[in-house]
Amino acid sequence: MNIPFVKMHGNGNDFVIIDNSNINLTFSNKKILQLGNRNFGIGFDQLILLESSSKYDIFMKIYNCDGIEVEMCGNAARCVASLLFTSNKKNKVKIETISSVLSAQLFKNGQISVDIELPSQDKKYFSLSKEIDIGNIDFSNLHPFLKGGILVNMGNPHIVFIVPSLNAFNLGLFGKNIETNSLFKNKINVEVVEIISDDNIKIHFWERGVGLTLACGSGTLAAVYACYKKKKCSSRVKVALSKEEVTVSINQNILSLIGKAEVSFLGEFFYEQK
After folding, report:
1. Taking 70 as the threshold, does the pLDDT of residue 77 lie above it?
2. Neighbours of 109 (CB within 10 A)
3. Are residues 195 and 149 located together in one domain of the fold?
4. Treating both helix axes as pointing N-terminal to C-terminal, what angle do 74-88 and 217-229 enclose, rounded to 10 degrees?
5. Is 70 exceeded by the pLDDT of residue 274?
6. Average pLDDT over residues 191-196
7. Does residue 132 sit in the same domain as residue 215?
8. Both 19 and 101 in a single domain?
9. 100 and 214, same domain (yes or no)
10. Phi, psi dihedral angles at 33 (to 5 degrees)
11. How many structural domains are present in the chain?
């Protein structure tokens, strides 16, 4: 059978989105790897399955391109919200994931805000293999810039490093080593941040199970929160990404990610029923 999908992206962080609420498809790890392959499949950072929610507008299942289900994705939520705004004819929706409930709002200028209540930062959410200070993690054995790492839980685990210059640091050389380090039993997402000014930062991303990506919504929130916690930035920050800027604001325990979501194309793929 042919399965329709929407290919979307948030600042280059791209997704294949399938409405699974009525067809109830299951995807094996092998099938996700095939679909996610950028040469022989459709290609994506994450596969998004939309399912019914008993409490909210939709339930969003998220699979990285390595086939592993993950807890949260802020940019995917922005894309899903954009679809819901069109189909449901309203400008506010709530999206459920396995770890969070995200509130999204459409503004008149086409920008979409995704809000998340800051999850608990308890050490247990990082599945660490040993006791360690989660606000000062040292990987300087890999590179001198990789010290003072800060763990942040955004419904999924992140480690954030504030570095002097992104131009002087190649995350692609070290991301895999950090992601898969034995300290992190369930692996980890990695962000490196350069502070431009009190209200302007740049970020590079290494996503768990994906690798280098052009953007990451939860990673953006984690990075800004880490900088704010370290008193390196204000509570409202512009973040320069590969394609355009997004804005992050922090209001007490609510973090908001504001940016655009774009449709790349519509398509179908063949799903073999067994």
Report:
1. yes
2. 6
3. yes
4. 120
5. no
6. 98
7. yes
8. yes
9. no
10. -60, -40
11. 2
- Beta carbons of 218 and 158 less than 8 angstroms apart: yes
CATH number at residue 204: 3.10.310.10
Q: In whole angstroms, what is the distance from residue 128 CA to residue 182 CA?
A: 8
Q: Residue 4 forms beta bridges with which residues?
A: 268
In angstroms, the CA 99 to CA 102 distance is: 10
Beta bridge partners of 130: none
Model confidence at 119, pLDDT cuts 50, 70, 90, reads very high
In this structure, what token pair is assigned to residue 141? 């054995």
Is the same domain home to 136 and 243?
yes
Dihedral pair phi/psi, residue 266, rounded to 5°: -105, 150
Domain that holds residue 26: 2-117+260-270
271 pLDDT above the threshold of 90:
no
Question: Cα Rg for the chain, rounded, in angstroms?
Answer: 18
How many Å apart are CA 159 and CA 145, to the nearest integer?
14
Query: 213 and 143, same structural domain?
Result: yes
Catalytic residues: 73, 216
Binning pLDDT at 50, 70 and 90, where does residue 244 land? confident
One domain for residues 68 and 139: no
The pLDDT-based confidence of 272 (bands split at 50, 70, 90) is confident
Average the pLDDT over 203-221 and give the result: 97
Give the percent of the chain with pLDDT over 90.
95
User: Can you list the pairs that 87-92 forms with residues at least 24 positions away whose Cβ atoms lie under 8 Å?
Assistant: 88/57
Number of H helices, E strands in the chain: 4, 17
